[in-house]
Amino acid sequence: MTNELTPKFNPTEVEAGRYEKWLEADVFKPSGNPDAEPYSIVIPPPNVTGKLHLGHAWDTTLQDIIIRQKRMQGFDTLWLPGMDHAGIATQAKVAARLAEDGILPQDLGREKFLDKVWEWKDEYATTIKEQWGKMGISVDYSRERFTLDEGLSQAVRKVFVQLYNKGWIYRGEKLINWDPKAMTALSDIEVIHKEIDGAFYHITYQIEGSDEFVEIATTRPETFLGDTAVIVNEKDERYKHLVGKNVILPIINRVIPILTDDHADMEKGTGVVKITPAHDPNDFEVAMRHDLPMINMMNNDGTINENGGKYEGLDRFEARKQIVADLKELGQLVDIKPVRHEVGHSERTGVVVEPRLSTQWFVKMDELAKNAIANQTTEDAVEFYPPRFNDTFMQWMENVHDWVISRQLWWGHQIPAWYNEAGEMYVGEEAPEGEGWTQDADVLDTWFSSALWPFSTMGWPDENSADFKRYFPTSTLVTGYDIIFFWVSRMIFQSLEFTGKSPFHNVLIHGLIRDEEGRKMSKSLGNGIDPMDVIEKYGADALRWFLSNGSAPGQDVRFSYDKMDAAWNFINKIWNISRYILMNAEDVSADSVSSALTKVANKTAGNVTDRWILTRLNDTARRVTEQMDKFEFGVAGHILYNFIWDEFANWYLELTKEVMFGEDEAEKDITRAVLLHVLDQVLRLLHPIMPFFTEEIFEKLPNTSGSIVVAEYPKARPEFNDDKASEGVAMLIELITAVRNIRAEVNTPLSKAVPMLIKSEHADFFNAVSPYISRFTNPSELTIAKDLAVPEQAMSAVITGAELYLPLAGLINIEEEIARLEKELAKWQKELDLVNKKLGNERFVANAKAEVVQKEKDKLADYQEKFDTVKARIAELKEN
Questions:
Q1: DSSP count for the chain of H helices, then E strands
Q2: Which string of b and e fits 635-669 if b means at least 16 CB within 10 Å?
């Protein structure tokens, strides 16, 4: 195996074929270690209607980060993949494909049409799995499930029958949301309310046996075909004389009564309200109170039915135009007033939803919701991240309505109910015995089966299933906030009902991915981003880095190609670091690395920079793990980025050149070992986020073996902690930075040697690291002492533990130097004010950890020393 990397990082080359190697090695399967703590995730199943979108790429990236880290930490991890049949969406897609060949589903019949849908499923499931591979997600394909698998179908039937037998599933005629394009019922959460331009149509209804008229206003004039009453408020003096009389519906001349009901608002519109019970939820409630007939005036496809008289067969919107024209001709159209209002649209097909009376199957939600609400006060409560989404979940559960679960489709779980000619109904997990039974043609809402996903995929209803006993409840669910109502809530109440447990311990909620202008991505705007196109250009690791670092939990993120460029540049930086280390670490063995690190830990070898970087590595591993455990991937990424780019690459690697270009071979061996160890640990810390290139480099390290997928995740090693070295190198870095800043201010390049004086109580330390100071600051002469005469004309800087002077006579302007120092003084005064304010807060001092308070006190002392030194220097310059 060569330890060389190609000169330029190419994500396509690095990622090609690696996923297949992981699968062949079975590294994604559970360890099977009975002593290891189980950690399980079931993938939010994508529907088989097409390619993955960025939102799903975000889901899978965050879940893969979690599962990869837990696997490396020694957990017995299971990440179970699967896909959702997505009834409405998939049936619509297949129907559209058939329509291109002039074929209607009805031409094929149910069974042959379903054969076509299964062909679609196989095609797009293959595509999705290929895309999962490109994303690098580490799922166990041996356990892959589909919501129409027989095992899951058995679970669906069992749940339906049990809820039916408890009286919690029922069949009845109620007002539901109807999708005229898909020709199926929808639940409330499948309706998206959008603002559109509409109008209030003011129409007059004639009082029967009179020349008097009443005026009503409606946004849907075509629905008057189904009116069965008009109402007024009993307190409305304007209409008291009309109560008990009838009005005549225009055009169709049907007579309907005038009633009183509180639903009529005297302050709103004309105070007279038309009642169309079969096409308006409020009107339905009025009709129930007054025992009014309910007239459905619309067919399944949104055309007017036989109750519409001469408008029969017209599309509902075409009928509206014709009715408005006819009312105008009759003189009964008083006015048309434009209005901007919210109208329900189908979440799947996008068409305007029609409230419509229909016989459907429903789930009673009162007991299920009550159980879910009560569970959130127990030890088994689901923890939401961020916690505010618990309120979102609770508010929905407290206001939930009965759930319409039947869909007028062919693709899905067919309802386990059968009917015979005698009018009898049988509900059971299997078909009834005997002849003459016909199964209900409807299928169940997709979310009915998806709600069982965390436990049905684990082998339930067999509660003795090994996976169910080992991995349920699952550990963490990752999903977008837009799916809490659709899916998360349903999984919770169904799991509590059928397993007695919450389906997962944690729910991590992320936001939506928007375009660079903050707009939601959509086909209509043409601003959608295909994650596969991004991977083709930048690689999966860069996309995963962007998705994990884009925002905090629950927040939206804006996609940006500039950020993708930055992600690629970061990977390329690590690639170049690795090339440098590998080129300087040939023939280094694992034993020699271990021996060298032991010597550094014991301080029998190595220098202060070695001990500093190992201390910083410890701190980085600890902080990254803490943030990952809180699902703060963005914070963890920021910590990693700063350590890798700034401390490791920009400082330690540069500082090691003092050794690597020197003559001491023993010292070089120590430095090589530290470089290899830090690189090894960095790759492990990065691997959950960036799996491909970290494996590529890891397998080339001379001191590693096996796959990084199952390598041990870094932990802080106390023997490497060296606070003194950490503080010392921090002062060294601050000194070098200050010299560079001063040189830049007076336009003196590093190539020009200048004298330098360092006054410090830590003179012994600065003398010990003087070779580094000389290499990185180029002094013509270097003076370091605890006490020395301060030159009159010199640029100065106050750093932690030292004062720095660069005598640059003739190059500085005293007044400008005083002005610069006064700005610096103001900076330190601001820092002092902030710390004093915090320490002056009694609640902070009383409640914060002792080490946090002490850290603020240490800052105060440091800032005060710098403030006093700068102030004294200003005074000296002014005196001279």
A1: 30, 29
A2: bbbebbbebbbebbbebbbebbebbeeeeeeebbb
Among 124, 132, 55, CA closest to 94: 124
CA–CA separation, 327 vs 333, rounded Å?
A: 5
Q: SS3 sequence, 316-340?
A: HHHHHHHHHHHHHHHCCEEEEEEEE
Q: Give the pTM.
A: 0.85
Phi, psi of 215 (to 5 degrees): -110, 130
Question: Which residue stretches of 584-664 are H helix?
Answer: 590-602, 608-629, 633-641, 654-660
CA 304 vs. chain centroid, Å, equals 43
444: nearest Cα among 746, 88, 876: 88
Residues forming beta bridges with residue 333, ordered by sequence position: 203
Report residue 877's pLDDT band, with 50, 70 and 90 as the boundaries: confident
Listed in sequence order, the DSSP H helices in 778-849 are: 814-839, 842-847
Structure tokens at 758: 């360092």
pLDDT digits (tens, 9 = 90+) for 104-127: 999 999 999 999 999 999 999 999
The Cα–Cα gap between 372 and 485 comes to: 13
Nearest to 187 by CA among 198, 175, 195: 175
Backbone angles phi and psi of 508, in degrees to 5: -95, 120
More confident residue, 528 or 272: 272
Phi, psi of 206 (to 5 degrees): -80, 140
ω into residue 807 within 30 of 0, thus cis?
Answer: no
Measured CA to CA, the distance from residue 296 to residue 279 in angstroms comes to 7
Structure tokens of 855? 């850290």
Question: Would you give the distance in Å from CA 52 to the centre of its chain?
Answer: 15
Helix intervals (H) in 645-716: 654-660, 665-686, 691-698
Closest CA to 819 of 761, 765, 862, 870: 870
| Per-residue pLDDT tens digits for 813-848 | 677 778 888 888 888 888 888 888 888 888 888 888
In angstroms, what CA-CA distances link 795 with 512, 742, 778? Answer: 51, 7, 16
Q: Which run of H or E residues covers position 292?
A: none
Length of the chain as a residue count:
880
CA distance 603 to 312: 94
Distance CA 458, CA 42 (A): 9
Rounded to whole angstroms, the Cα distance separating 204 from 691 reads 70
- 497 within 8 A of 525, measured Cβ to Cβ: no
Helices marked H in 279-405: 281-290, 316-330, 366-375, 388-398
Amino acid at 602: N
Question: Parallel, antiparallel, or unpaired for β 779-785 and 754-760?
Answer: parallel
- CA trace torsion 273, 279, 281, 282 (10° rounding): 10
Contacts of 565 (CB under 8 A, 6+ apart): none
Quick check: 283 and 276 in contact, CB under 8 A?
yes
Question: 317-354 pLDDT, tens per residue?
Answer: 999 999 999 999 999 999 999 999 999 999 878 899 99
Tell me the mean pLDDT in the region 71-75: 97
* One-letter amino acid of 419: Y
Q: How far is CA 416 from CA 133, 152, 217, in A?
A: 37, 14, 44
Which of 72-81, 370-379, 509-518 comes out lowest in average pLDDT?
509-518
CA dist 423 and 437 (Å) reads 10
Averaged pLDDT for residues 593-622: 94
Q: What CA–CA distance (Å, rounded) separates 655 from 774?
A: 11
- In tens, the pLDDT along 544-555 reads 999 998 777 888
Which residue bears the tokens 């009633």?
Answer: 259
* 8-state DSSP, 122: H
Adjacency order of strands within the sheet including 504-510 = 383-385, 504-510, 474-480
Position 490, amino acid: R
